[in-house]
Design goal:
The protein is α+β, with helices and mostly antiparallel strands. The chain is 32% helix and 29% strand. The protein contains twelve helices and 16 strands. It has a 16-stranded mixed sheet that branches.
Length: 361
């Protein structure tokens, strides 16, 4: 969830309304607000209409006599809480146009959206944000903890340019440093294990459902990773840039996958990771990293964000990932009875499993 720097609003708070959007009539104006704040993203609004769990909702800020100048979305989501699946809401895409950017409009949008929980069948609302932390706290949300960002450097020249003077030394030193990095990397000399099949695809079939059915209960708090959800989240349109590296056993059943995206300068962003146990995760990371080093991708660096999940963090460290600063926090909002009854569960970060898949859609 994003929000730009706050400035003084030019419209009095009492001369504006915050209402639930008409998803047909208000679409163009909402997309305009989001485009001005976040840039082009053809699927952002469409994702609110095609959510596999339920049609999502958007609240809008409309100054009297003006067009819409603020919007805040709520996606339907399914969250595993122990052995039960709960309907929850995922908040995100908070944007207010520059001339109306004060704490007032943004806070009104948040409080109106959060207030919808009481009249719904949802257990709670959650979101991940860096920019709107003070506003979410003022609106009554509680922080669970900070997201972690892990980075593995494959090609060192860019990093060396930041440290060496003159900078041409980086080009000379980088090949030697890269060889050293590769020799140190766990995936360079993988241990023997059972035969597996790997591949890269753009679709999610029933194998992904069966994998989630086997492993989902191992994550005390996690969003559902069904094939329908994954398809909606990552491959909802022709312009999708996500790919899925999958690994299967000798019988063709999935034992792990990594959804990733190739960004500028061959930086690889890991969006989601799922696996059937520690040995599978080790082999998955090993095979994935070797593929990313290949001539097909020539990765320069690989980044993965996650929240909770001790095992994934532990294995990322083993494979040479280093923690980098990250300010995004996970927030939840619920009625006091719900949160108090499950306080140890909800507010223990290590019970959660969230990845880049759980960020703004």
């Amino acid at each position: 969830m994003n929000q730009s720097v706050i400035s003084r609003s030019s419209v009095p708070a009492d001369a504006a309304s915050v209402t639930l959007a008409d998803m047909v009539l208000d679409r163009d104006e909402i997309e305009g607000v989001w485009r001005r704040s976040f840039g082009e993203s053809p699927r952002r609004f469409e994702n609110y209409l095609t959510n596999p769990y339920a049609e999502a909702m958007i609240w809008v800020y409309r100054p009297e006599g003006h067009a819409i100048h603020g919007a805040f979305g709520l996606h339907a989501q399914q969250l595993s809480l122990g052995d039960q699946i709960h309907s929850v809401g995922q908040i995100g895409n908070l944007a207010v146009d520059k001339d109306y950017r004060s704490a007032g409009p943004a806070l009104r949008l948040q409080r109106t959206l959060l207030g919808s929980l009481a009249d719904s069948d949802r257990t709670l609302l959650f979101g991940i944000t860096e920019e709107a932390i003070p506003l979410l706290r003022r609106a009554g949300c509680k922080s669970v903890g900070t997201v972690e960002r892990w980075v593995k450097i494959i090609k060192s020249e860019t990093q060396l340019r930041k440290r060496l003077r003159p900078t041409w030394l980086a080009k000379v030193a980088a090949p030697m440093v890269d060889v050293g990095l590769r020799l140190k990397s766990r995936e360079t000399f993988p241990s023997r294990s059972a035969e597996v099949t790997v591949g890269v695809g753009h679709t999610f079939d029933s194998r992904f459902d069966r994998l989630w059915e086997r492993v989902g209960s191992r994550f005390p708090i996690a969003t559902q990773r069904t094939s329908d959800y994954l398809t909606w989240r990552f491959h909802g349109g022709e312009e999708s840039t996500f790919k899925t590296f999958w690994m299967a056993d000798t019988e063709g059943e999935l034992i792990g996958y990594i959804v990733f995206e190739v960004l500028r300068n061959a930086n690889i962003e890991v969006a989601d990771v799922m696996f059937d146990g520690t040995p599978a995760l080790d082999r998955l990371l090993s095979e994935f990293l070797r593929r990313m080093r290949s001539r097909e991708y020539r990765a320069t660096a690989i980044t993965a964000c996650c929240f909770g999940a001790n095992l994934l963090v532990e294995r990322l460290q083993k494979f040479g990932f280093n923690r980098r600063p990250e300010k995004s926090q996970v927030f939840i909002y619920g009625d006091s009875a719900t949160l108090n009854d499950a306080d140890p569960q909800f507010f223990d970060p290590q019970r959660w499993y969230l990845t880049g898949a759980d960020g703004d859609v």
